Amino acid sequence: MTTTPDLTTMEQEKLRAHVAEVLTRARSRSTALTDAVDDHDLTRQHSRLMSPLVWDLAHIGNQEELWLVRDVGGRDPVRQDIDELYDAFKHARVDRPALPLLGPAEARGYVTEVRDKVLDVLDHAVLEGRPLVEGAFAFGMIAQHEQQHDETMLATHQLRAGAPVLDAPPPPRGRWVPAAEVLVPAGPFTMGTSTEPWALDNERPAHQVHVDAFVIDTTPVTCGDYLAFVEARGYHDPQWWSPTGWAHRQQAGITAPRFWEREDGRWVRTRFGVREPLPLDEPVVHVSFHEAEAYAAWAGKRLPTEAEWEKAARFDPASGRSRRYPWGDEDPTAEHANLGQRHLRPAPVGAYPAGASPLGVEQLIGDVWEWTSSDFAGYPGFAVFPYPEYSQVFFAPKFKVLRGGSFGTDPVACRGTFRNWDYPIRRQIFSGFRCARDPRPEELG
Length: 445
Ligand SMILES: [Fe+2]
Known about the structure:
This protein is an alpha+beta fold. Helix content is 30%, strand content 13%. The chain contains nine helices and twelve strands. It has helices at residues 9-35, 39-43, 53-72, 104-124, 137-159, 223-231, 243-252, 289-298, 306-314; strands at 181-184, 187-191, 207-211, 214-217, 260-263, 266-271, 274-277, 369-376, 396-403, 419-422, 431-432, 436-437. It is globular and about 65 Å long. The protein binds fe (ii) ion. Residues 59, 63, 88, 145, 149 line the site of fe (ii) ion.
């Protein structure tokens, strides 16, 4: 962990105000996502892949209670009796509906009671002297946790059948992006971070990585691009698929991205209960790693490694340093990226010229999580913080890394260094991808 030098009273107050703001923003979103449906929809399971929404809600409160009320605050438990019910490691998602969960009213009362105590803890906590509170880390971790569950709840909404209940304005318009690909020259860059105060253990520490020259797409693969693969019968030709990917494709019987359907000779997709024509210029979403990998092979390319993705996103050749975000060090605004559920869909390609990286790669942050070819693993010098269940227990080749966040990811849980992971078959998440390839000899000059 980085240590924050002694904070002045004014800096402490500024930090407290920032914490209160991000916690409040997370709670407004949790409230909006759970108030949008009735009690029946809150307590039922919309997919075996997901928890009932009411489980997510009380689990958010329980984690907040464990870390901020009990640990940081040293206060008495609010509801110690429910710890086991809301421990994600004790009950698989599929089993959660059968648990004696708090009902909607009880869950709402519980999270409110916890939050009231947390705001009081925040008023009194000393935000330095102990790694967990240094720079308000535990508060930042809990705000990220709530926002991550909000993204999960948004994915549950996408799986829910019935009339649409969510609404948001459309994203900005796309534009023609002049270069389809850029060459990233060979050389070292700084991957990960040792200075970002709320970065999680798996993003640490900063370390030098040599990356060979590679070529990467300037935009994510669109629905239109992907449709060409579908129409070329890419789902019926094992040559594009890895053996594992093909076996899964056969066994699951998938023939298109999730939520796509062929209707009267044309393709439509369903998005939060709305059926609409396929938006050809929008990044494809709800594809698995296997589908992304097969498309890339068909296109004569491959998925980027995690290091390639991060170098394309953060490396500034002019200064030789890595930025916090593709556009620079400032926090994301509405001009930079499609984040925070501001829009309920990925934005068309070219919609965020202000979000481009120094190398000219666009929409790396926001829109869709991007599959990389890398397994989830700890960086050299990795140290568990604050507990092994955050990341370390997931370091395994069975998990693939996704980068960049989606339209459903809040800025607090999205950075140039942020790492997400999932099983390569998953596609209920807001996952898409972009392609990369090795340069041709003449491109290296
Ligand atoms: Fe959780």
